Every structure is written in C-alpha cells, then in structure tokens.
Amino acid sequence: MPSEHGPALAARPGIGHERHALWIRFRASEKPLTQVEFALMNAVEAKLAELGITLPTPAAPVANYVPYVITGNLLVISGQLCFGLDGKLSDAHKGKLGAEIFNEAGLEAAKLCAINVLAQAKAALGGDLGRITRCVRLGGFINAAPHFAALPAIMNGASDLMVEVLGDRGRHARSTIGVAELPADAAVEVEAMFEIA
Prior knowledge:
alpha+beta, CATH 3.30.1330.40, five-stranded mixed β-sheet
C-alpha cells in the first residue's frame, strides 16, 4: 500500500527491502537506528569521509532555473561549476584547457564539479545520499582551446569520483563537449542525472 512515505516496497526497484524499511523508520522518527543500521544508510557519507571529501554548501542558481528537479524516480542536477569548499572559483580552475590551464588542473576542476553535483543531490534528497540507486548520466562541458582534444580525459575527473564514491552504482553514461566559454570563465561544468529511491 502506498503511504505518506511513498510507494510500497515492491514499487521501489533497485533498493533492498531492508534499507528501504530503515529509510521509512528514519523519516518517521520511530525508534533510533542502531550503529549498524545508521552505517547502512550512510555508506556514501562514509566513503566521502574516507576520501577526505567535505561537501560544500550547494551553489544557488544565478539565472532563471532551479538547482535540481525530481520527477518520478529521477533526480536531475543542473550544471555545476568547479567551485571550491569556500564557494569560490579558484584562479587555478579558470580559463581554457590547452591554453591558460592544462590537464592536471582540468582533472581537478572536473572532480570539484562532481563534488558540487553531490552537494546538490544531498540537498535534494533531504540529506540522504544513500537514496541514490544509480548515477544514470553525467554531462561535461570543457572550456577548451580549439585544438584541445583531450576532453574525455578531463571529464574522467568527474566520472572517476562518481565511481569512487558510489561504486558500481556510480557507473554512468556520459557526454563530453568542448565549448568556447563557460560562466565565470570556469574550466569545467558538469550536470547529472540519478535514479533515486
């Protein structure tokens, strides 16, 4: 039966009944979760901590759009720039790949974009990144000089992080496009689509 917490268990493919029951209990503020149960719900957070990654405060939209949309069991995250933990764009991550900046800085910029994607996802999901059952797609936009052809390698900065944090659930389809300019002269922008429980 559907409840105030959403569809019945059988209608939630891709997530174990045990974990879903924990989510229901957590949201309903029933008896507190045990340490083991809490760890089950927070495996993504634990992985982020293990990697030494702190998610920043999600960036606010700068134009007429919303940072994310949930429709059905899909969460779509608007394009995220390579802001640091302080919410600012470092000079090291501004400019064109193959001109002002090179591969190492580009990889780091793509990784920062993915971190900002996860920060938006966490906000969208009420703080529970464990509700992500699959990263469906990443879209990457690389601010690149006309001759720069290593676009896929730069986008791996975002893709590798997603797989590192989510494991097999992080394996995704993707597109990577070289562009003439990005907002604030950022080196990279990444958008995402997730399947959620």
